[in-house]
């Protein structure tokens, strides 16, 4: 997509200006700021779980029982049952026998991808080939999250980037690197594009070339699939070669990250990943809230249903307005504007009407492809969606 020198060049011609509004409440998806009520189309709190009474009650009980922080790595300072239970439940959601919890999704990608090539990890993961093939190589989608790109860079292993979801390009690269231990890495749902990775094709290539497939399901966990299991459940596509990464700070409403794998692999990660062994987990009250979030995910499927109903309602109403919508596959609906300044003006116009939408521009999106990223939410009302569409119609010159 671009490298750090592109960003440096871009920064030279763009004065750095950062202004982040301070709000009085968190978006559920409506928030209050300076007495004004604003509807957010830019929160990852997709299922409006962050202030769900059951999560709040579980966190309060966790605070009373454990206090506010863990204050030590679980590896060194001792462990708590609440973390073990959360890991077991996350493993179940992802059809794996275990999961390893990290403080955030960002740290999960950094921690796992940088350490995967250590300690004969691949030999343990795959049990074959790795003994004779000592050179590891990463294959990463060009639009993967920055934490993936940084984690791969930190590993020091050979790395290749394939064009977004282009399986022919990925296979060309895999063929060219015969003799290495390949690790393919892809977002399950791409956060700026709203696209879903072609998992069955990725698995076929991983199996053909003896690769590990690492899927970042940050925007799919809790959302895709009948039970919110993510990209694998969406396609009904499971394989022992998949490592299932996810975050707990989006649909699940709290904080944390995890990678779900088989038990023996999980233990290797615990021992080799510095981001597990040399830093703290999320506070225990958050782990308690997350167990409640997994219960709600199972017991209130209507939340996921409402999210998808809202997504379809928005997409249908936007269709006649003539905008280019980059993907309609997920609750992330990016509306292409192109010019960055124009995109900012649209976002400001929406904000004046009490609607918050992020204007995504370079380096988060390719140059010249600025977009308004509408993130749909289970808590949006039809009136709120109608209002957003009416403003978009006006901006398109329809009224
Ligand atoms: N992966 C992807 C695809 C993401 O979009 C994000 C968050 N924007 C992360 C990882 C990091 O997750 P967290 O916020 O839990 O650190």
Automatic annotation (TrEMBL):
Keywords: Aminotransferase, Pyridoxal phosphate, Transferase
Species of the source: Rugamonas brunnea
Matching SUPFAM superfamilies: PLP-dependent transferases (SSF53383)
Keyword DNA-binding recorded: no
Domain Aminotransferase class I/classII large: 37-390
Regions annotated as coiled coil: none
Segments crossing the lipid bilayer: none
Pfam family of the protein (one): Aminotran_1_2
Listed InterPro entries: Aminotrans_II_pyridoxalP_BS, Aminotransferase_I/II_large, AON_synthase_class-II, PyrdxlP-dep_Trfase, PyrdxlP-dep_Trfase_major, PyrdxlP-dep_Trfase_small
UniProt protein name: Aminotransferase class I/II-fold pyridoxal phosphate-dependent enzyme
Cofactor(s) the record lists: pyridoxal 5'-phosphate
GO molecular function: pyridoxal phosphate binding; transaminase activity
Family, similarity comment: Belongs to the class-II pyridoxal-phosphate-dependent aminotransferase family.
């Amino acid at each position: 997509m671009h490298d750090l020198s592109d960003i440096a060049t871009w920064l030279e011609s763009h004065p750095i200006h950062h202004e982040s509004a301070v709000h009085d409440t968190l978006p559920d998806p409506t928030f209050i700021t300076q007495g004004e009520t604003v509807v957010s189309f830019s929160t990852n709190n997709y299922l409006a779980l962050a202030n769900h009474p059951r999560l709040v009650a579980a966190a309060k009980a966790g605070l009373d029982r454990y206090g506010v922080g863990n204050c030590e790595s679980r590896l060194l300072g001792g462990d708590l049952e609440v973390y073990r239970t959360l890991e077991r439940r996350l493993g179940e959601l992802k059809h794996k026998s275990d999961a390893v919890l990290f403080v955030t999704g960002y740290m999960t990608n950094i921690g796992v991808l940088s350490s995967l090539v250590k300690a004969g990890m691949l030999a343990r993961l795959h049990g074959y080939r790795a003994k004779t093939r000592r050179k590891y190589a990463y294959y990463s989608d060009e639009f993967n999250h920055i934490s993936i790109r940084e984690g791969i860079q930190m590993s020091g292993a050979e790395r290749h980037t394939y064009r977004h979801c282009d399986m022919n390009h990925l296979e060309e690269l895999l063929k060219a690197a015969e003799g290495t231990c390949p690790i393919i890495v892809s977002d399950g749902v791409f956060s700026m594009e709203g696209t879903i990775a072609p998992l069955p094709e990725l698995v076929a290539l991983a199996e053909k070339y003896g690769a590990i497939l690492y899927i970042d399901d940050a925007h799919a966990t809790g959302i895709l699939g009948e039970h919110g299991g993510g990209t694998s459940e969406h396609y009904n596509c499971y394989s022992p070669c998949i490592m299932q990464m996810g975050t707990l700070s989006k649909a699940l409403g709290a904080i944390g990250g995890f990678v779900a794998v088989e038990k023996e692999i999980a233990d290797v990660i615990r021992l080799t990943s510095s981001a597990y062994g040399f830093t703290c987990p999320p506070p225990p009250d958050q782990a308690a809230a997350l167990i409640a979030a997994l219960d709600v995910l199972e017991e209130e499927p209507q939340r996921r249903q409402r999210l998808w109903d809202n997504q379809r309602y928005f997409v249908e109403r936007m269709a006649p307005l003539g905008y280019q919508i980059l993907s309609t596959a997920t609750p992330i609906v990016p509306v292409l504007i192109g010019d960055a300044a124009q995109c900012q003006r649209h976002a400001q116009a929406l904000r004046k009407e009490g609607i918050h939408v992020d204007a995504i521009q370079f380096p988060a999106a390719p140059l010249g492809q600025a977009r308004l990223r509408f993130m749909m939410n289970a808590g949006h009302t039809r009136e709120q969606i109608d209002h957003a569409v009416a403003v978009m119609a006006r901006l398109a010159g329809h009224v």
